[in-house]
Please model this.
Amino acid sequence: MHGHGLRYELVRGQLRTGILRGSKHGSLAVKLASSLFQHVEAHALGEVFGPDTGFKIADSPDTVRAPDVAFVRQERIPAGELTEKFWPGAPDLVAEVISPSDTLYELDEKIEEYLASGVAVVWVVNPKKRTVTVYRPGAGPGVLSEGDQLDGSPVLPAFQYPVAKLFEVKHR
Model:
């Protein structure tokens, strides 16, 4: 069900709402997630999570964030299956794709929360500027443009992805 730019879902009798994202947002998030997933799977490095995964990154008051893409290292994943509950703690790497509805305040708040909660790498994809800004604890942000390579160090040091490829649109 949709209406007024919101998505409505009925889950066990409760109505939940969320903001609909545009096609560019979805395409960019999937490109990052799929390239990360291929690398992580090939080397058995951990788990890649999509945009509907909640990470409980703070308690009292509770803060649960759902990044567009997230990665958790294998050694942090308990033996057995993943839980149906929110992930308890921060992921190791986060990617957020900026949407027109995002405010600078909200974006800054997310980045600060991620880094304060233990996220080692935050990628912020800006579709309008065709850049990726990389944040790491204790360092200033680094802006990558289409001539640069996105990498996952220190969490995924062997992962490389051309920024230009992220923004390619293939026509037939």
Residues 149 and 162 are 4 Å apart (CA to CA).
